[in-house]
Amino acid sequence: MMIGALPVRRHAGAEVYLPGTPMIAVRAMLEERVANRVYYTRIMRTPFRVEDAAMSEVWRLFAAIEVPQDVRERVDQAGRLLANAGWRAKWVTPDRTHLTLRFYGNVERERLDALQQALREAIERESTFTLQAAGAGVFPNPRRPRVLWIGLGGHELQFLNRLQTGIDRASVDLGFPAEERAFHPHLTVARIKPEDLSTITWVERRLAELSAFPPLPVPVDRVTLFRSELRRTGPIYTPLDEFPLNGVGR
After folding, report:
1. Number of H helices, E strands in the chain
2. Sequence-distant (≥ 6) Cβ neighbours of residue 162 within 8 angstroms
3. Could you give the CA distance from residue 59 to residue 249 in angstroms, rounded to a whole number?
4. Which of 8-17, 60-69, 175-184 has the lowest mean pLDDT?
């Protein structure tokens, strides 16, 4: 058979150039094949990598209510009280304190516009209300605490529950999974690692001390969609959009 302009026969699956074939021609053919293989590999792979990167670009998102500065200071106060009592935990940075209404996790950027529109429609029909930051507790229980929190409640708590239900319903309609856990409004103070459990003593007494703090008002007039970027120094929360509560009456 002929490959290019060179006479070749196959033996045991290999190409054997016939006697008399100039070596310079064989070398040129081999170099051309190598160049072609590299070229075809590049033109096949590069578009795939670009497209794959565009399709896989995701942002870690959550919808939340921001809280006033005095409530953030309360979170800091609670953490310092417990740290002084010998508790070891991963304390939340007060400036990052918020009430999460819906955590989306990694979301493809091309879904962002639709999510913003759905949130806007679900939130704008609701009216403003006020919560109370009061009380304290742990998840899952005082015997093996994993999360320490300050509670959120008050006589207008029902309006928060309605707001969160509307957001969850709008999210499900967009294809996001429904929340499996019941909504329990709280502000996280600390997360406790298993290796630090031995330092978490007198849990119920410490919770009673935190619960003795006077309630603080938390006005709610908007919901913010955040992007979360995980860094070694802690997460960075970037607000992407705000959705005012514009409803009139209840």
Report:
1. 5, 12
2. 126
3. 35
4. 8-17
pLDDT in tens, 13-22: 444 445 555 5
Residue with tokens 């009380």: 135
DSSP designation for 208: H
Tens of pLDDT along 155-199? Answer: 999 999 999 999 999 999 999 999 888 999 999 999 999 999 999
Residue 132 DSSP code: E
Q: What is the pTM of this model?
A: 0.75
Beta-carbon contacts of 199 under 8 Å, excluding residues fewer than 6 positions away, are 86, 87, 88
Residue type, 102: R
- Show Cβ contacts of residue 207 under 8 Å, excluding neighbours closer than 6 positions: 136, 137, 138, 142
| Amino acid identity, position 163 | L
Per DSSP, 173 falls in state H
Looking from the CA of 61 toward its CB, the CA atoms found within 13 Å total: 21
CA distance 187 to 190: 9
Q: What's the order of all strands across the beta sheet hosting 186-191?
A: 90-91, 186-191, 147-153, 129-139, 216-220
Pairing, β 58-66 against β 14-17: unpaired
Q: How far apart are CA 94 and CA 69, in angstroms?
A: 9
The rounded distance, in Å, linking the Cα atoms of 123 and 31 is: 65
